[in-house]
Amino acid sequence: MNPEELITGLSAAQTDGLVCVICGLDYLRSPGSASVPVGRSVTGSQVFACVGRCVEAAPTISRRVGGGRR
Ligand SMILES: [Zn+2]
Question: Out of the domains of life, which is the source (predicted)?
């Protein structure tokens, strides 16, 4: 995982790290969800993806997360 990876083409909510950049899950409305920072938006704020499937699905993101801890 490279938390400094620049991720573009995001919605406003994704840019703010409020929703998953892959599946669009709204973290504010999903209290049990686990997410990890997967990069930065063009504004410099961190963006997040769900632990597991979404992190692995992200093409610009390495697959370290989810590989060792489940
Ligand atoms: Zn997701």
Answer: Bacteria
The model's pLDDT over 29-57, given as tens digits with 9 standing for 90+, comes to: 998 999 999 999 999 999 999 998 898 88
Q: From the CA atom positions of the chain, what is the Rg in Å?
A: 11
Could you tell me if 39 and 9 are in contact, meaning their C-beta atoms sit under 8 angstroms apart? no
Distance 64 CA to ligand 1 centre (A): 16
Ligand 1 mean position, distance from CA 2 (Å)? 17
pTM: 0.76
Could you give the number of structural domains in the chain?
Answer: 1
